[in-house]
Amino acid sequence: MSEAAPLLLDTHAAIWAVEDQPIATTAKEAIEDAYRTGRTIFVSTITAWEIGLLVSRNRLGLSTTPERWFERLLAIDGVQLAGLSPDILIASSFLPGEPPRDPADRIILATARDLGAALITRDRLLLKYGEAGQVSTIAC
């Protein structure tokens, strides 16, 4: 990962950031370094959709509505919304190698590749894709 590379939080990493849950030291250091150096920490628009699904399926309990929760995420200093352009959506259909089948994961991967960002994730399939050299990942 380049020192100037932005970061992209996958959905679970975003949840842990807002809920102040423990994350791996390497990921914590990368986030702290991004804050210190003024690098952007992105979150994908698809994360809002995933949060809504998790709440609607009772797989995630929030102390507020998903809409307010997502607003709180975007209010964290240094966090920005990564756009979801048609190019990213199309690129998610043509990822090299053996990407995961989950459409949201593919969109997050395409977003990371488009931004040149390191993806902070605990998802084993996303980490495996990163190990194959297709995207920069940081385990959290």
Number of strands: 5
Q: Tell me the number of helical segments per DSSP (H or I, 4 or more residues long).
A: 7
Strand content: 5-15%
Oligomer: single chain
Short précis:
The chain has 140 residues and is α/β, with parallel strands linked by helices.
Overview features:
five-stranded parallel beta sheet, 140 residues, alpha/beta, 5 strands, 7 helices
Describe this entry's structure for a reader.
This protein is α/β, with parallel strands linked by helices. It contains 7 helices and 5 strands. It has a 5-stranded parallel beta sheet with strand order 3-2-1-4-5, sandwiched between helices. The radius of gyration is 14 Å and the shape is globular.
Secondary-structure topology with pairs:
Elements: E1 7-9, H1 11-18, H2 25-37, E2 41-44, H3 45-56, H4 66-74, E3 79-82, H5 86-91, H6 103-115, E4 118-121, H7 124-131, E5 137-139
Parallel strand pairs: 1-2, 1-4, 2-3, 4-5
